[in-house]
Each structure stands twice: as structure tokens, then as C-alpha cells.
Write a structure and sequence with these properties.
Order of helices and strands: EHEHEHEEHEHEHEHEHEHHHEEEE
Number of strands: 14
Family: Belongs to the leucine-binding protein family.
Strand order of the largest sheet: 2-1-3-4-5
Mean pLDDT: 94
Strand content: 15-25%
CATH topology of the largest domain: Rossmann fold
Number of domains: 2
Shape: globular
Keywords: Amino-acid transport, Signal, Transport
Low-confidence stretches: 1-9
CATH architecture of the largest domain: 3-Layer(aba) Sandwich
Distance between the termini: 49 Å
Pfam families: Peripla_BP_6 (PF13458)
Structural class: alpha/beta
CATH class of the largest domain: Alpha Beta
Domain Leucine-binding protein: 12-348
Protein name: ABC transporter substrate-binding protein
Helix content: 40-55%
Largest sheet: 5 strands, parallel
């Protein structure tokens, strides 16, 4: 398929980026935007990717699917970028994947829905661990603690539907029983009705699947209702913003998350340790703000494109980058250690996650 991107002879690596820097998902997208700009500036200051500077073109989709579509169309048709990183959310990614694919431009999504890369589209990749990996880590922990009767409460958006699908599939496969299956809307501000229904069936544990602010509301409602049943969250709340929103109600909650938010707790000999600490220190020094798992996705996306250049003969054309991405092996990123192939456009597995709890208003790796 012919690419609409510029000629391979261009002397810059032209990367388009779309993220939700404003709107409901800004707690995800703003760190992505800031990181993309920071990493681009750092790489260019050090001489570029194999001597080729990066030109970053960023658009804020404002967490709006229509604006996201328009932004990607603009990157493809007007800006003629070599690759696109983003969007931030699963719903927006699913809405724009075909645009990039039909144009023959590699897209590296920063969202986690498994259907982004399953089935594999030759032009679509993602840099976050998959929802099935997060579910697997939660269920492994639940099994270890003897929790057999599980209740789930999931948000009715793209991210929530993906998580719900895997929870419904993997809970019975793990020999456990799904005793309640509740939904809530992305803009709902009270979930006491759903939690009351869950409380009435007395599960061993509850799994909430969503991104802020809904999970923070659920955490607070749980405390208000006097529910002491253990509560798992998804990896969609792995930012300090969740702890701020939930306040004291966050205490003791559990979730699977990438190692970035617990970088100091990782053993010094872990392959990711240096990468995590370098990124964390750079981000927090530059922006005077706590590092976020989600900002790390932009770090990994740009890093993977740079790694792809090592396999493309320094050819920055879209097709060469796509082919190069499929040859990346053992790239150490913030989300994990990536090994991509024609059959796997994610390159991560369940080992990318640590099980984490919230203790004294901060993250702590669980034993």
C-alpha cells in the first residue's frame, strides 16, 4: 500500500502526536504531551536519532472522538508525518486506526484496549500492556488470597468494555465465580446503587474497571456504604491524580501497574531500573510534578520509533519505520521490555505489571 507520508530522503523524523491534553482524560494526556515534548527536545539536543532530528507535531483532541479524527486526518493529509503516536484513550484509538492504516502510516497507540492490536493490523501498534494482562495479574493475586466469588463494576466506555470482556472470560477460566456484574457511565457521580447490589451478594472481592474520576467515586461510595470487601482497581488509575481524588478512601486499594510509579522500590539489578529512574528524575525536575505511568507511554512510543530506525537503515519513511518496528527486540521502556514481531504489535506480557497497593497515600509494591 502506498504511503501518504513524505519521501524517505527527508532529513527529519516527522512524528505526529495526538493526546487528550485537555478534557476528561487530561490526567492521562497531559503527561503524554509533556513527555513527548521533553523527550523530543532531549533527543534533538543530543544530535537526533542516528543524526536525524525529530520534528514533533502535536494536536490536543480534548478527549473528544470527533476532534481526534480530525487531528489524525490533518497529520496524514496536511502534515504528512512519518508516524503517529497516540491517541490517549481506547475509544479514540479505535476511531482513528483505519485512517492511519489506509494511509500507510504506523500508529503507536498509548491506550490499552486489546482490540487495538488483536487482530493485528500491519500499521497499528500499542505501547501499553494489554487489559488481559492486567486481569491476569489481578486474578493471580485473588487466587493467592483465596478469593473465589468476585464482583465487577465497569465503566461503559471503550476501556471499560474491553476490561469487562476479559473479566467475564477469565474469571470462570480461573475457576472463580462471577457473582455480580455492574455498569456505570463515564460521567456518573454516584454509584451507591451498583455497590449496594454488589454488597448484597457478599463477594470475596470487587474489581472496578475504569479511569478517573469514576473509580475515585466508587472508592468513596464503598467507604460511605461501610463495605470492607477488598477492592481491586484497574491499571487505568495508576496516577497520583487517583489518590488525590479518592483521598482517604484510596487506602488499601490494590491494582496492577507498571513499575514506573514504584521505580525506587524496584531492585537495582532489574533491567528497567535505570530507564525508570532517569525518566522519573527528568520529568519531575522539568515539570515539578509527580511522574505518571501514562506519560511513560509517550516515552516508550518515541523510543520504539528510534529503535525502529536502527532496523530501517536510517530510513524514516513510514513503510521503513513499520518494518523496523516489527524487528525491535528487547527494547527496555517504562512499561516493560518490548519484543515486537509481525504477529505481536504490543510486545509485552503480564510480567510488565506489578501488583501495587495504596498505603499512607502512596504506592507500595505488594509481596
Amino acid at each position: 500500500m502506498p504511503s501518504l507520508a513524505g519521501a524517505a530522503e527527508r532529513d527529519t523524523l516527522k512524528i505526529g502526536a495526538v493526546a487528550s491534553a485537555t478534557g476528561p482524560a487530561s490526567f492521562l494526556g497531559q503527561p503524554e504531551k509533556l513527555t513527548a515534548e521533553m523527550i523530543t527536545e532531549k533527543i534533538n539536543a543530543e544530535g537526533g536519532v542516528n543524526g536525524m532530528p525529530i520534528e514533533l507535531i502535536f494536536y490536543d483532541d480534548e478527549t473528544d472522538v470527533n476532534k481526534c479524527v480530525l487531528a489524525v486526518q490533518k497529520l496524514v493529509r496536511k502534515d504528512k508525518v512519518d508516524a503517529i503516536i497516540g491517541p490517549t484513550t481506547s475509544g479514540n484509538t479505535l476511531a482513528v486506526m483505519r485512517i492511519a492504516s489506509q494511509a500507510g502510516i504506523p500508529l503507536l497507540s498509548m491506550a490499552s484496549a486489546e482490540k487495538i492490536v488483536d487482530p493485528v493490523d500491519p500499521w497499528v501498534f500499542k505501547v501499553t500492556p494489554s487489559d488481559s494482562h492486567a486481569v491476569t495479574r489481578i486474578l493471580q493475586h485473588a487466587e493467592k488470597n483465596g478469593y473465589k466469588r468476585l464482583a465487577i463494576i465497569t465503566v461503559s466506555d471503550g476501556f471499560g468494555q474491553s476490561g469487562r470482556d476479559f473479566l467475564q472470560k477469565l474469571i470462570p477460566e480461573a475457576g472463580m465465580e462471577l457473582v455480580a456484574d455492574e455498569l456505570y457511565g463515564p460521567n456518573d457521580t454516584d454509584m451507591t446503587a451498583q455497590l449496594t447490589s454488589i454488597k448484597n451478594v457478599n463477594p470475596d472481592a470487587i474489581i472496578c474497571w475504569g479511569t478517573n474520576p469514576g473509580p475515585a467515586v466508587i472508592a468513596k461510595n464503598r467507604v460511605q456504604l461501610g463495605i470492607e470487601t477488598p477492592l481491586y482497581m484497574s491499571h487505568g488509575v495508576a496516577s497520583k491524580k487517583f489518590i488525590e481524588l479518592a483521598g482517604d478512601a484510596a487506602e488499601g486499594l490494590m491494582l496492577p501497574a507498571g513499575r514506573l510509579i514504584v521505580a525506587e522500590q524496584i531492585p537495582d539489578d532489574h533491567p528497567q531500573k535505570q530507564v525508570l529512574m532517569d525518566y522519573k528524575e527528568s520529568y519531575e525536575k522539568t515539570f515539578q510534578s509527580p511522574v505518571s505511568t501514562f506519560g511513560g507511554h509517550a516515552y516508550d512510543a518515541i523510543g520504539l520509533l528510534a529503535a525502529a530506525m536502527d532496523h530501517s537503515g536510517n530510513d524514516s519513511s513510514a513503510e521503513a519505520l513499520r518494518n523496523g518496528l516489527e524487528k525491535v527486540k528487547g527494547f527496555v521502556g517504562t512499561a516493560g521490555i518490548f519484543t515486537l514481531s509481525p504477529e505481536d504489535h504490543n510486545g509485552l506480557d503480564a510480567t510488565a505489571f506489578e501488583m501495587i497497593t495504596i498505603k499512607n497515600g502512596d504506592w507500595k509494591i505488594m509481596d
